[in-house]
Design a protein that fits this description.
α6 (about 175-195) packs antiparallel against α9 (about 235-285). A six-stranded mixed β-sheet has the order 5-6-7-3-8-9, with helices on both faces. A three-stranded antiparallel β-sheet has the order 2-1-4, covered by helices on one side. The protein has helices at about 10-30, 35-65, 70-115, 120-125, 135-175, 175-195, 200-225, 225-230, 235-285, 290-310, 310-335, 395-405, 435-440, 460-470, 470-475, 490, 495-510, 525-535; strands spanning about 355-365, 370-380, 385-390, 410-415, 425, 510-515, 540-545, 555-560, 570-575. The chain has 18 helices and nine strands. It has two domains: about 10-335, ABC transporter transmembrane region fold, CATH 1.20.1560; about 355-435 and about 495-575, Rossmann fold. It is an alpha/beta fold. The two termini are about 45 Å apart. Bound molecules: adenosine-5'-triphosphate. Adenosine-5'-triphosphate (ATP) binds near residues 366 and 368. Pfam families: ABC_membrane_2, ABC_tran. This is ABC transporter.
């Protein structure tokens, strides 16, 4: 969780650049996107044409009324009805196409960013990146707002330009002075709005962040419900939720205050429009130079043009929210985009002929670079040998595994290990995926990838592995067998989850298994059972991190980490 309190005011040019970076790829890469966009443009043009035609139809209608000519009035009413019949489907289609394109665009962008997010452990690296908070919100709310507002605003802008050109002609032909008044009025309105509302962008960004933080605290409460209930931590949790809620409400209040001030102005600005054009042209009407229909037409044209010129006044609130979201999305995109690893070179996994793992002169820093965890560690583990890593709490044991996995890359040195497909990491906290028991066992490979050709009798192998870790009962409870779907993370004890993780290793048969306190929740008997099962896997090398002396029985050598205060900061010894 980061707190992003930085200044949100970004120059317009920079905003346009960010916008282009986010928007253009969809129209360049997605199939049919250009066509959909072209169709929308066509409908925008038609819709603008419909408005102009209606301005004339309306003018004739009112002129016939004021002339008290009943036959003409009926004729103009009929014209109006025909116009309505043609314009209605066109306007509806235009709106539908706009929403459809927004949805397609959103789906494409979300898929694209979610793909990047789930590739190359980006979801993990993002957690280490202080610039990016609440990625879930960015992938959902921010993209939705970005695509919808971009289209709405882009189309409004386009319609405004078209309207401006067509209605300016009408207005100028009626009364040039009206034309000058409108420009002066719109310029005054826009400048005043910009001045009154300039703090809204930053305030909206704060609200987005605080609401996401509130949601995050509720999700954490749900995920850790049992631990919190055992601790009796509800008062502390309630305070946290309340504080975050207050933060979000306070942010909204600030937005409301600015909006109120802005609306004092914009509301008066819009009310005045109702009579302003009539006031300007009324002398012509009283002099008998123009008819009533011309007044209503000029009033309509005036309103249209003013709407066009006042786009910023009318949409300021939306634009400011959009602009806040724009920055959040680009920061997320930057962090999720595949990047070159930081120098010095990170550990480089590659296959080895006789060695399962080689570490050469490895020095590692924490991800923020603030602390050196260990320096110049070198060692080799031969195929089929097993290494135990020990050291005081915080000495950097798990961090060494992170470096071997390539998750932490700040530092120097070379790590050589089998390819990822031949290496399995069992983290300190076991992970249960969503889905069936079968999916738990084959994790992390998707079910479809387990073809019958790879191992004979798929279900037999799964049940055998369950038996080896003493979990056969999971498949025999109920009638669903291996297809049973339960909330495994919630229902299985920690020890059972650890046994399930070992079953995954037995099934997958990697060349290298890295076990981070993978049996810490088990009794000694079960621990021995699991390590013996691992020891019987042909060609397997494992490396364990753990504190228990009993682990010495299952390893040939030991790496001790002492911390950087001591030189050398490590020792490798054979276990006698
Ligand atoms: N994301 C992080 N950013 C900065 N420092 C971190 C981060 N994660 C862990 N550390 C720090 O790195 C140090 C080493 O952590 P590590 O998890 O490797 O310790 P360990 O030896 O495995 O400890 P234990 O036996 O308690 O599990 C710790 O001091 C920890 O606070």
């Amino acid at each position: 969780m980061a707190s992003d309190e930085d200044d949100q005011r970004v120059p317009l040019k920079e905003q346009l650049r960010l916008f282009r970076r986010l928007a253009v790829p969809y129209f360049e890469q997605a199939e049919g996107a250009k066509l959909q966009f072209a169709l929308l443009l066509l409908l925008v043009l038609i819709d603008a044409g419909v408005s102009v035609v209606f301005s004339y139809v309306g003018r004739d209608f009112y002129s016939a009324l004021s002339a008290k000519d009943q036959a003409l009035f009926i004729e103009k009413t009929a014209n109006f009805a025909v116009g309505l019949a043609v314009a209605t489907p066109l306007t509806v289609l235009f709106r539908f196409q706009r929403s459809r394109l927004a949805l397609n665009w959103r789906a494409w962008m979300t898929t694209e960013l979610a793909r990047q997010y789930c590739t190359d452990q980006t979801f993990y690296q993002i957690e280490l990146d202080p610039r990016v908070d609440n990625p879930d919100q960015r992938l959902t709310e921010d993209i939705k707002a970005f695509t919808a507002v971009s289209l709405d605003f882009g189309i409004d802008l386009m319609t405004s330009v078209i309207d401006l050109v067509s209605f300016s002609g009408i207005l100028y032909s009626i009364y040039p002075e009206l034309f000058y008044v409108i420009f002066a009025y719109a310029t005054f309105g826009t400048l005043t709005t910009l001045q009154l509302g300039k703090t809204l962008v930053g305030q909206n960004a704060q609200v987005l962040l605080r609401e996401a933080n509130l949601r995050y605290s509720l999700v954490r409460l749900r995920e850790n419900a049992e631990s919190i209930a055992f601790y009796g931590g509800e008062a502390q949790e309630a305070r946290e939720v309340r504080d975050r809620l207050e933060g979000a409400v306070e942010g909204r209040r600030a937005v409301l205050g600015t909006q109120r001030n802005l609306e004092f102005f914009t509301t008066a600005y819009r009310y005045a429009i109702q009579i302003l054009p009539v006031l300007v042209v009324s002398p012509l009407y009283f002099a008998g130079t123009i008819e009533l229909g011309v007044i209503t037409q000029s009033s309509g044209a005036f309103n249209s043009i003013l709407d066009d010129l006042s786009l910023i006044v009318n949409e300021f609130e939306g634009i400011s929210r959009f602009s806040a979201g724009l920055r959040r999305l680009t920061a997320f995109g930057d962090s999720a985009a595949p990047s070159t690893p930081p120098v010095p070179a990170p550990p480089s996994p590659s296959p080895l002929p006789f060695r399962a793992l080689a570490i050469d002169d490895l020095s590692l820093l924490t991800p923020d670079g603030s602390r050196l965890l260990f320096a110049n560690v070198s060692l080799t583990v031969r195929c089929g040998e097993h290494l135990l890593v020990t050291g005081q709490s915080g000495a950097g044991k798990s961090s060494m595994l992170r470096a071997i996995a390539g998750l932490w890359t700040r530092g120097s040195g070379i790590v050589t290990r089998p390819l990822t497909a031949d290496t399995m990491f069992l983290p300190q906290r076991p992970y249960c995926a969503l889905g069936s028991l079968r999916q738990q066992l084959v994790y992390p490979r998707p079910l479809e990838e387990w073809s019958g050709a790879e191992w004979t009798g798929t279900d037999d192998a799964l049940l055998r592995a369950l038996g080896e870790v003493q979990l056969t009962r999971l498949a025999s409870e109920g009638t669903a067998g291996l297809d049973a779907v339960r909330d495994w993370a919630d229902e299985l004890s920690l020890g059972e989850q650890q046994r399930l993780s070992i079953a995954r290793v037995l099934l997958r048969k990697p060349r290298l298994a890295i076990l981070d306190e993978a049996t810490s929740a088990l009794d000694l008997e079960n621990e021995a059972l699991l390590y013996n099962a691992l020891g019987q896997l042909e060609g397997l090398t494992y490396l364990s991190v753990g504190h228990r002396p009993s682990l010495l029985n299952f390893h040939a050598s030991r790496l001790r980490l002492y911390g950087v205060e001591r030189t050398p900061c490590y020792a490798v010894e054979t276990i006698g």
